[in-house]
């Protein structure tokens, strides 16, 4: 696992080094002072000074021994789970999920809140605050930071939700400012699929990968790309907005149809179920999709072929190691992913020798909240 932050060695950046040291110990990449020095690219004596400070601040423990094949036994470094906790919150137009993780990165508490059919931006802000306060009832130590996974276009530096199609008044919302005022702790914002990429790094299939892509057909359709261990944002924070591609991909003059209109999770369910586009969604979309996972025939093949056109283009664009399917369509199972890859090979002759690897995520519905908590963990550093 490659962490987001590159450690600088000048004293002025000591806080960054301390934060990175905690991340390496939490991830398991550094289990001793020696291995931590190697991960940070600093001398063992300097690493030892940082460790001593983190132990004094009761953020790390050093105990026990680990006998390697050669040399003296090494004392083991671990984070103190009770040192504090991080909240992660992610939402769509239908629901909000929140998780609380302790200082060692273990999930302790979860909260799920449904959102009204005609949800407004102010309702979302209130639900975020409510969910964090609910998490606090089960957590130990102080709340250190809150990570937010926000759908649509976002500006992480400004802490603003720019636009989300499925909440009409969600435009230029100063989310970080509003939530910080309510909770009084640092709040960090990132796009929903990008925080899901972090969830896969800490809790899922991306743990040992430097290149992977999150495929996210949910309320809309987007992707998040990790390259060289870093989440790609783009010059205008809009990298991965493939749902805005014209559909069909060749386009049609005068057409306003976009990819997310056809390949979102809800649109895909309606196509597979053979119901009109205006049909209301089932109360449990995941369960309804799971019931369709064994279907066969022309409709299944047409849906898989449409997804294959997107997956093939993304693979050629990113040359990624792994594509991870997220959202309700994971309920269609491994066969859905295998059918898409088979269709890719038929549509893209250049990919037949090295077809993309597409798998459903194992993280479930909490993935976005887990990713938001991961964002909080990665962004936090000792004062």
Would you kindly provide a written description of the structure presented here, covering whatever features stand out?
With 383 residues, the chain is an alpha/beta fold. The chain folds into three domains: 11-79, Arc Repressor Mutant, subunit A (Orthogonal Bundle); 84-198 and 367-379, Nucleotidyltransferase, domain 5, CATH 3.30.420.40; 210-362, ATPase, nucleotide binding domain (Nucleotidyltransferase, domain 5, 2-Layer Sandwich), CATH 3.30.420.40. Helices cover 37% and strands 21% of the residues. The protein has twelve helices and 15 strands. The protein has helices spanning 14-27, 33-40, 44-56, 121-136, 175-183, 192-203, 259-263, 265-273, 285-290, 298-318, 333-347, 367-379; strands at residues 60-66, 74-79, 85-91, 95-102, 107-114, 143-150, 153-155, 160-163, 171-173, 187-191, 212-217, 221-227, 230-231, 323-325, 358-360. The strands form four sheets. A five-stranded mixed sheet has the order 5-4-3-6-10. Strand 7 (153-155) and strand 8 form a beta hairpin. It is globular and about 65 Å long.
